[in-house]
Write a structure and sequence with these properties.
By secondary structure, the protein is of the alpha/beta class. The chain has nine helices and twelve strands. It folds into three domains: 79 residues, Arc Repressor Mutant, subunit A (Orthogonal Bundle), CATH 1.10.10; 100 residues, D-Maltodextrin-Binding Protein, domain 2 (3-Layer(aba) Sandwich); 100 residues, D-Maltodextrin-Binding Protein, domain 2 (3-Layer(aba) Sandwich). Helix 1 packs across helix 3, helix 1 crosses helix 4 and helix 5 crosses helix 9. The longest helix is centred in the N-terminal third of the chain and has 23 residues.
Length: 295
């Protein structure tokens, strides 16, 4: 009899196109995942993937199996949830949050969810937006708040939740300085940016190319706390989302200037799989996320 767990593993490999990435997303070893896939292929007497140096490529038989596998897994999950006798929505909802998204709002989400829906166990995990998209595709997350820079894979839908200003943060020697700074003026400042392919870096690089200017990038650092520390010490200004300052103990230590001409704004979207029927608990948390983060 076909193992539902192997179908879940097959879906993850098919959607991520890589045994190693799927193994990371599923929290199992790559050899163990490969064994499960080979066993499934033997049970079906069909080759589901072609292995090569760049990953795996799904075969025609695999493409035929994929929608059926998704439906089987979804039906099993929904059946288990529906047969549980509960008066109120319950269960675990796992939400991914990008590292630059306001931590105070994330704390507020947990507080409000626990007060309003005590039977729902809310798990929050933090990872870069690209990783969260992969985890949604693999079924590891129910929902995720991400900064999008391109098209999403098929089977994932997005709903805009809020917009964040991009700002230049530097030490504050002049309290009368302007609250905005033209993008072209950034060329005169040494700055800290996250490395590519970070979504913020992609936005800033595209704006620099469009303006025909070169930025003086002193350091490439992905950790917001370190970026702010360099700014506070006057070593270099950092380009971050305004919400990155929300949890800093000394926000008054900084000069914060909104980047204009053009305005740099990042949209935060709530993403989820469109191939699965959402459970009541997931829908409740999704509505609460929109309320908390857009407020």
């Amino acid at each position: 009899m076909m193992d539902i767990k192997r179908l879940r593993f097959f879906i993850a490999v098919a959607e991520l196109g890589s045994l190693s990435r799927a193994a990371d997303a599923l929290h199992i070893s790559q050899p163990a995942l490969g064994l499960h896939i080979r066993t499934l292929e033997e049970e079906l007497d069909r080759q589901l993937f072609v292995r090569h140096s760049r990953g795996v490529e799904i075969t025609q038989a695999g493409r035929q199996l994929l929608p059926h596998a998704r439906r089987i897994v979804r039906d099993v999950e929904e059946t288990v949830e529906l047969l549980r006798p509960r008066k109120t929505p319950a269960g675990k909802v796992t939400v991914g949050v990008g590292p630059a998204i306001d931590p105070k709002k994330s704390a507020g989400l947990i507080e409000r969810a626990s007060a309003r829906f005590p039977e729902i166990r809310l798990n929050l995990v933090t990872a870069p937006s690209a990783t969260l998209v992969d985890w949604i595709a693999a079924g590891r997350l129910d929902l995720a708040l991400v900064h999008l820079t391109g098209a999403l894979p098929s089977g994932i839908g997005a709903e805009p939740v809020m917009q964040e200003d991009i700002v230049l943060v530097s030490a504050r020697p002049d309290r009368d300085a302007a609250v905005t700074i033209p993008f072209g003026a950034l060329a005169r400042h040494p700055v800290v940016l996250p490395p590519a392919p970070h979504s913020l870096r992609a936005m800033v690089d595209a704006a620099a190319q469009g303006a025909g200017i070169g930025l003086n990038i002193r350091f490439e650092i992905e950790t917001v706390d370190v970026m702010l520390e360099l700014a506070e010490q006057g070593i270099a200004g950092c380009i971050v989302s305004r919400s990155a300052l929300s949890a800093h103990p000394r926000p008054e230590a900084f000069l914060v200037q909104k980047i204009v001409e053009p305005d740099l704004v990042r949209e935060v979207s709530l993403i989820r799989s469109t191939g699965r029927q959402p459970l009541p608990a997931t829908d409740l948390v999704a509505r609460l996320i929109t309320d908390v983060y857009s407020g």
